[in-house]
């Protein structure tokens, strides 16, 4: 009986996440480059866009959102992170662009989360007016807990990526400085050897007068 209940709860939550129209990913944005993503959205649909520059340069990019009529509904210059929600007034293909064209040498790693439409309710839980049963309450609590776990996992993944990138940059700088010091010490040692060799091999001529 217990296994059946657990399997039912897992099936309901799995159906929920499969029916949610949302996407989450990270991508690399090269220097002097621009990446655009396109999404077909119905009219009067709520859209939520979250983004964050994880690594690279000053952690900033230019972000724009265009509607199907090529009107800018969102524009942010040199932004590190933000959460933007809008309602689609017209139906069509919306364009979301991330630009790193102002950067001459540093590329960025950008995280993006896009949710189209309202968050759907759990099937069979919130579609009635009567008091929820103990199982339905448990399903809703598990659902909220899973959402919280996913949010924390995303947050810690981004923090871990930032920390790893900073550690790699610090390691590269330490390695470069160590190589410079090694070369400097090597040249100084060779110079000292030649100076000592020249000092001990130099002969002094003592002048004398003939009788």
From TrEMBL:
Residues 34-116 form the GOLD domain. The chain crosses the membrane at residues 174-196. InterPro entries: Emp24-like, GOLD_dom, GOLD_dom_sf. This is GOLD domain-containing protein. It is found in: Endomembrane system; Membrane. Its main location: membrane. One of its GO terms (cellular component) is endomembrane system. It comes from Cuerna arida. Keywords: Developmental protein, Membrane, Signal, Transmembrane, Transmembrane helix. The keyword Protein biosynthesis does not apply. Residues 1-22 form the signal peptide. It holds the Pfam family EMP24_GP25L. Belongs to the EMP24/GP25L family. It is a single-pass membrane protein; Single-pass type I membrane protein. The keyword Transmembrane helix applies.
